[in-house]
Automatic annotation (TrEMBL):
Pfam families tied to this protein: rve_2 (PF13333)
GO biological process: DNA integration
GO molecular function, one term: nucleic acid binding
Domain Integrase catalytic: 1-76
Function: Involved in the transposition of the insertion sequence.
Domain of life: Bacteria
SUPFAM superfamilies tied to this protein: Ribonuclease H-like
Name of the protein in question: IS3 family transposase
Length: 79
Protein backbone atom coordinates (compact mmCIF):
# COMPACT_ATOMS: atom_id res chain seq x y z
CA UNK A 1 0.00 0.00 0.00
CA UNK A 2 2.76 2.48 0.83
CA UNK A 3 4.13 2.13 -2.71
CA UNK A 4 0.75 2.24 -4.47
CA UNK A 5 1.13 -1.33 -5.74
CA UNK A 6 -2.02 -3.37 -6.22
CA UNK A 7 -1.62 -7.09 -5.68
CA UNK A 8 -3.25 -9.26 -8.32
CA UNK A 9 -4.65 -12.53 -7.06
CA UNK A 10 -5.51 -15.22 -9.55
CA UNK A 11 -8.70 -17.19 -9.25
CA UNK A 12 -8.10 -20.75 -8.11
CA UNK A 13 -7.24 -23.00 -11.03
CA UNK A 14 -6.98 -20.18 -13.60
CA UNK A 15 -3.43 -20.15 -14.93
CA UNK A 16 -4.26 -17.55 -17.60
CA UNK A 17 -4.52 -14.74 -15.03
CA UNK A 18 -0.75 -14.83 -14.56
CA UNK A 19 0.36 -15.93 -18.04
CA UNK A 20 2.30 -12.75 -18.86
CA UNK A 21 4.32 -12.67 -15.65
CA UNK A 22 4.85 -16.45 -15.70
CA UNK A 23 6.27 -16.09 -19.22
CA UNK A 24 8.58 -13.29 -18.06
CA UNK A 25 9.84 -15.32 -15.10
CA UNK A 26 10.50 -18.34 -17.31
CA UNK A 27 12.54 -16.26 -19.75
CA UNK A 28 14.34 -14.41 -16.95
CA UNK A 29 15.34 -17.68 -15.29
CA UNK A 30 16.77 -19.19 -18.48
CA UNK A 31 18.48 -16.03 -19.79
CA UNK A 32 19.68 -14.62 -16.48
CA UNK A 33 19.26 -16.53 -13.24
CA UNK A 34 20.52 -19.98 -14.26
CA UNK A 35 23.56 -18.79 -16.23
CA UNK A 36 25.05 -16.14 -13.93
CA UNK A 37 26.85 -16.34 -10.63
CA UNK A 38 26.36 -13.67 -8.00
CA UNK A 39 28.82 -12.63 -5.32
CA UNK A 40 26.12 -11.55 -2.87
CA UNK A 41 22.55 -10.24 -2.69
CA UNK A 42 23.58 -6.69 -3.60
CA UNK A 43 25.38 -7.93 -6.72
CA UNK A 44 22.24 -9.92 -7.65
CA UNK A 45 20.04 -6.82 -7.27
CA UNK A 46 22.33 -4.74 -9.50
CA UNK A 47 22.47 -7.42 -12.18
CA UNK A 48 18.69 -7.96 -12.00
CA UNK A 49 18.06 -4.25 -12.60
CA UNK A 50 20.37 -4.40 -15.61
CA UNK A 51 18.56 -7.47 -16.97
CA UNK A 52 15.12 -5.87 -16.57
CA UNK A 53 16.36 -2.77 -18.39
CA UNK A 54 17.73 -4.99 -21.18
CA UNK A 55 14.48 -6.99 -21.31
CA UNK A 56 12.32 -3.87 -21.63
CA UNK A 57 14.48 -1.69 -23.87
CA UNK A 58 16.76 -3.88 -26.00
CA UNK A 59 15.54 -7.48 -26.14
CA UNK A 60 13.54 -7.97 -29.34
CA UNK A 61 10.28 -9.91 -28.94
CA UNK A 62 9.66 -12.34 -31.80
CA UNK A 63 5.96 -11.50 -32.22
CA UNK A 64 6.47 -7.72 -32.00
CA UNK A 65 9.77 -7.62 -33.91
CA UNK A 66 10.78 -4.84 -31.49
CA UNK A 67 11.38 -4.29 -27.78
CA UNK A 68 8.43 -3.50 -25.46
CA UNK A 69 9.53 0.15 -25.20
CA UNK A 70 9.85 0.46 -28.99
CA UNK A 71 6.41 -1.14 -29.42
CA UNK A 72 4.79 1.19 -26.88
CA UNK A 73 6.37 4.25 -28.56
CA UNK A 74 5.25 3.02 -32.00
CA UNK A 75 1.72 2.35 -30.67
CA UNK A 76 1.34 5.82 -29.13
CA UNK A 77 2.68 7.54 -32.25
CA UNK A 78 0.13 5.70 -34.39
CA UNK A 79 -2.78 6.60 -32.08
Amino acid sequence: ESRAIVQSMSRKGNCYDNAVIENFFGIMKSEFLYIKEFENVEHFKIELEKYIDYYNTKRIKAKLKMSPVQYRTHFYQAA
